Task: structure prediction
Amino acid sequence: MNRLTASVSAAVLATGASLVLLAPATAVGAAAPNDVQKVPAADLGPGRPWIRLQDDPGNVGRPPGVQEVSPFADPVGFNGSLHLAIAGGQQAQAAHYFTQQISLSTIAAAELSYDTFVASTTPPGAVGVGPNLQLPMICQGAFTTLSFRPEDNTDAQGHPGVVPDTWQHFASSGSSPWRTSRAVATFPAQSDNPLSDYVAACDAPGDGVIGVIANVGRLGNVNDTLDTYVDNLTVNGTAYDFAVDGLATGRVTLRNTTPGDDCRPGRLCRPGGTRTATGTVTFTDPVNGPEYHAVGTRLVFSAGRALDPRDLKVTADGQPVALTAGPGRTLIGVVDPVPSVNLAPNDTFSTPITVSSTRGRNLTGGGNRGSLTLRAELLAQGYDPLQRTGVEASTTLRRPPIGGRR
Result:
């Protein structure tokens, strides 16, 4: 234990609090802005960069709830999230302690934000509360924990407080209230104050922030429950991204089905062009992949010429798809299944599609080198419905030379 760690531990123990200092996977210190650090399931547990409630011996007697890296897709990376859930009398948290203290002024000068999701439960659980973003710290030689609480703030989308079943992005501002768990400096225990007030007061030698915590505390009603997800905790220039190991992949097939034409591989392609094509867009989620909710598909068509929405007729699952002009002379359509569909690990989401020319032109254009490219992207529920996930696949339908082979 180095001298700084020993002095921090002594200050914490003097107040009766417990602290476990662990070395993170990479040093925190002065991280570059928006540095993303993945937190897989292997990094959560005793002796790991992130510890759960029960991994701290000082929490003996506090029943832990659910604290796990979950497949539940977050609204940024769509690669999983941190699941924190409690039943009556429980507490759930994931804590990351720095290798050295960081001044609160440094922490306050950088982005402080996170994403939260509070799930509705049956029977209904606690109402209007969510998971906290916490900063354990030393202030004037005493230990306390500062908590940013969603119920006291407005999210980036303009919603005050907690909105159930919705991903919300919360960022600390100059007026955001932070609650101190203990009486420190001139602040009473459980009082709410802007971070700037703590910065001004917590300036003694040895003061500073010792870590970051995502926490669901014990509720006032012992019968209440709370089911939440947290991700992208951003502090001191690092965004901590809780993630599963796998990601979905895509595949697009598209072939000419114009009556009288036969341009399959290995066969002579008779004249007549490509006026109708059929295929399938398939997204496959591996067994260790995320759980995508309310999925859809974004279709982007491009060719060797500018495309007009009147050029193509597209159907998906037999239903027409509206096309709009997109950047780069493309056409864009969105497939939104009704009823809603989820893509779970070890599952697939497939959409049969048909593409037809509506103005007598070949889909692949004129000449021997014409082509039509379809790029498909998986959409899922994020901050908004049908948000882009970055999971893409594409295929190109080409016009073979007349009389030639593919």
About this structure: The radius of gyration is 27 Å.
